[in-house]
Amino acid sequence: MAFPLLFFLLITSLSSIPLSHSKLSLDYYAKTCPRFDSIVQEIVYSKQTQAPTTAAATLRLFFHDCAVDGCDASVLIRSSATNKSERDNDINHSLAGDAYDVVSRIKTAVELECPGIVSCSDILAMATRDLIIMTGGPHYKVRLGRKDGFVSQASHVEGHISRANNSLNQMIAIFQSMGFTVQEMVALTAGGHTIGFAHCSEFSSRLFGKNPDPTLNPKFAEALKRHCANYSTDPNIAVFLDIVTPGRFDNNFLKNLQKGLGILASDSALMKDPRTVAIVNQYALDNNLFFRDFSRAMEKLSVLGVKTGHKGEVRKRCDMFNNVD
């Protein structure tokens, strides 16, 4: 089987919005910070142009934030002498710096325009949506008015985010605990991975372990082994999860799974189980259906566990609580 040239240019996660989130609105900043939307768009465009993996990194950052204690920007908090924060749980060590940077850039600009008004959690939600659109993905509505959370603890992360070697049962259980169906799980996973990337250490056992994964396409496995040969000495070596159109948000990732070109074991598992294989096949056949279901799932994800009113704050800096001495 011949692989696309782009493979050899590989680089070094449907329901209505709950009524309980009625405090959120599409025009939340219309009067208090009317240029919020345009500021986000301008900075997102600039950052994505400079660093084309920003979209994938930010989408992953957003999911990792929402999956642990809700969409409250808790993943942005840096650890202190008295608190080990979410971002220092080992599963978050691979979150890319470009995602943190784009949020920081937007926060700085917004604070100059309308100080103390816009939360970091709203910035992360909007930046994620706009970056998805910029890479060719669907538009979906982002309701605003989230507050930033008061808690960020590394101990809260485990069991809330799927690992690359999780079984399908484990993945389904994690998504169900957040209120997502199996179909929504597939849509979110495909959406994150169509423009996503993974470090070789996340799938090295499929290539170099005592029992290499026999389900990997042999030629594909050999190419991966060559690319990841030095992963143990260079932990930054990474590959795109979609080897055909890595920079474009589309359903090619799902088509690749049908051909045995899933890089992560957790992705390949989607093609081996009757609960998910039909969904993968549907989305691989119908890009519009994939976009529709992904959009609905993202709207649902974006209001997961949000804080409003006195249950949160608007941080002055996204990486620090306001009450830090």
Produce a short descriptive summary.
The protein is mostly helical and 325 residues long.
General description of the model:
The protein is mainly alpha-helical and 325 residues long. Helices cover 41% and strands 2% of the residues. The protein contains twelve helices and two strands, in the order ααααααβααβαααα. The chain has helices at residues 36-50, 54-67, 97-113, 120-134, 168-177, 182-194, 205-208, 218-227, 252-258, 265-268, 277-285, 287-301, and strands spanning 197-199, 238-240. The protein has a two-stranded antiparallel ribbon. The protein is globular, with a radius of gyration of 19 Å. Residues 1-20 have low confidence and may be disordered.
Attribute tags:
single chain, 325 residues, mainly alpha, globular
Set down the secondary structure blueprint.
Layout: H1 36-50, H2 54-67, H3 97-113, H4 120-134, H5 168-177, H6 182-194, E1 197-199, H7 205-208, H8 218-227, E2 238-240, H9 252-258, H10 265-268, H11 277-285, H12 287-301
Antiparallel strand pairs: 1-2
Helix pairs in contact: 1-3, 1-4, 2-3, 2-4, 3-4, 6-12, 9-11, 11-12
Number of helices: 12
Major beta sheet, specifics?
A: 2 strands, antiparallel
User: Oligomeric form of this entry?
Assistant: single chain
SSE order in H/E notation? Answer: HHHHHHEHHEHHHH
Average the pLDDT over all residues and give the rounded result.
Answer: 90
Strand order of the largest sheet: 1-2
Helix fraction, binned, reads 40-55%
Shape, principal axes of CA atoms:
globular
Cα-atom Rg, whole angstroms? 19 Å
Q: What percent of residues are in strands?
A: under 5%
Decide which structural class fits the backbone: mainly alpha
Quote the distance from N terminus to C terminus.
60 Å
Low-confidence stretches: 1-20
Number of strands: 2
